[in-house]
Design a protein that fits this description.
The protein has 149 residues and is of the alpha+beta class. It is built from three helices and ten strands; from the N terminus they run H-E-E-E-E-E-E-E-H-E-E-E-H. The chain has helices at 6-18, 96-99, 129-137; strands at residues 22-24, 27-32, 35-40, 50-51, 57-60, 64-68, 74-77, 103-107, 110-114, 123-127. The strands form three sheets. The chain has a four-stranded antiparallel β-sheet, with no helix packed on it. It has a three-stranded antiparallel β-sheet with strand order 1-2-3, covered by helices on one side. It has a three-stranded antiparallel β-sheet with strand order 5-6-10, with no helix packed on it. The longest helix is centred in the first third of the chain and has 13 residues, at 6-18. The model has no long low-confidence stretch (mean pLDDT 85).
Length: 149
């Protein structure tokens, strides 16, 4: 995944400092229920579904690392079809603008899990947001974990 343009990072940084909303670089900063959320920008093209193979690591949308012990499960954007999702009440914990961009785990079209909201045995969905933020915010800056004399 390429780094976002400096202009996009600046727009998000400025909005964060001023308490306003903004979008840029595929991300959207929004305020909801007293908190500040940095989410995937709605309306941006999202990856197609990917069928998980047993034991294979898949990075989805640069935001999630997924691995399954079984086969046949698909990861894809949640979209607006929550058919069969037993935990659909949990979607109320996420700003409306972000829901369709969440990563969902499906079996035969039925939503089994939404990353960050619930889990399915045998499937690991690890968020990569810390790595993405670090890479974006510190791009081009030399590491300085030692003292310079």
């Amino acid at each position: 995944i390429p780094l976002p343009a400096a202009k996009a990072v600046q727009a998000i940084s400025t909005a964060l400092a001023s308490g306003s909303a903004a979008s840029g670089g595929g991300a959207a900063l929004t305020h909801w229920r007293g908190g500040t959320w940095l989410v995937r920008e709605p309306g941006r093209s999202l990856p197609k579904s990917v069928t998980l193979q047993a034991g294979a690591d898949v990075t989805w949308d640069g935001r999630w690392q997924c691995e399954a012990s079984g086969t046949g499960l698909e990861i894809a954007p949640l979209g607006r079809d929550y058919r069969g999702y037993a935990h659909s009440d949990r979607l109320g914990d996420v700003p409306g603008m972000a829901r369709s961009t969440l990563v969902a785990l499906r079996n035969g079209g039925t939503v089994l899990a939404v990353a960050g909201l619930n889990a399915v045995p045998g499937v690991t969905m690890t968020p990569l947001h810390e790595r993405l933020a670090e890479r974006t915010l510190f791009a081009g800056i030399a590491p300085a974990w030692f003292d310079r004399i």
